[in-house]
Specification:
about 10% strand, rod-shaped, about 270 residues, Uracil-DNA Glycosylase, subunit E
């Protein structure tokens, strides 16, 4: 192509670009944008410390969760019991004690019943269903049998004569679920209150009825072997006896219970003489 024809050709192209809207020339030479790479560059990621060192990635250890301080329930019970100067104060301290889980499932608080001046204090195991409803120890069939047993030797919790009257309580003031036997931790927790209870009533003789009071105050089990044999508990003469519930299930054992009642009666007469 000669120079004249090239001129007119370039001018035609330039005019065509102006008609398309091009106003300024940016580069001296055209760029073939179809030949450019269309792939976008990958973003750069800062290397982790593990990648820099070449070792496995290590995470900061998770800090341990804070733990609640352990509660010394036995120590708190001992302090509360020692501060009780009389039975009403002891009763209030026991009712306010919040560390025994049995309290949350029981209906009523069971403290004691009978003559506070009684020479004989009977300690049972734990409240039954009937006692939980009544809020008194030794009620229902077992309580009725207990009253008949001691009436046979002219004694009772309602007796006018303190020398022939009774005071009754239980190792625990709240009923265990389904009348189960109390466990060792429950007994240990409430033992300071029971010991203070005995000290404030100050009877001449203790009667431990069943395995639970024997385990609590004598650290021994096996009421069938222990019954009828005198021991000393908290500085007082103590006679283990079969619980009325046991006698209701095993009527033949009433012979042993009668022998124990006669032994108790003879002991009390000896104290009078």
């Amino acid at each position: 192509m000669d120079s004249v024809n090239k001129y007119w050709n370039d001018r035609a192209l330039l005019e065509w670009q102006v008609e398309l809207g091009a106003t300024d020339a940016i580069l001296d030479a055209p760029i073939d944008r179809y030949a450019l790479e269309t792939a976008k560059p990958e973003p750069k990621i800062a290397p982790t410390p593990a990648a820099q060192t070449g070792g496995p990635e290590k995470r900061a250890p998770t800090p341990p969760l804070p733990q609640a301080p352990e509660i010394d329930a036995v120590g708190l019970a001992r302090t509360a019991a020692a501060a009780a100067s009389d039975l009403p104060a002891l009763m209030a301290a026991m009712e306010a004690f919040e560390h025994c889980e049995l309290k949350r499932g029981a209906r009523k608080f069971v403290f004691g019943d009978g003559n506070l001046a009684a020479r004989v204090m009977i300690i049972g195991d734990a409240p039954s269903r009937e006692e939980d409803r009544a809020g008194r120890p030794f009620v229902g069939r077992a309580g009725q049998l207990l009253d008949r047993m001691f009436d046979a030797i002219q004694m009772g919790r309602a007796h006018a004569d303190a020398a022939r009257s009774l005071y009754v309580t239980t190792v625990l003031p709240w009923r265990p679920p389904s009348n189960r036997a109390p466990d060792a931790s429950e007994i240990a927790m409430m033992l300071p209150f029971l010991e203070r209870h005995v000290a404030l009533v100050d009877p001449d003789v203790l009667i431990l009825m069943g395995n639970t009071p024997c385990a609590a105050l004598m650290a021994r089990n096996g009421i069938s072997r222990l019954r009828g044999t005198w021991a000393e508990v908290l500085g007082k003469p103590c006679l283990p006896m079969l619980h009325p519930d046991h006698l209701l299930r095993n009527p033949i054992a009433k012979r042993e219970a009668w022998a124990d009642l006669l032994e108790l009666n003879a002991h009390l007469r000896g104290l009078q003489g």
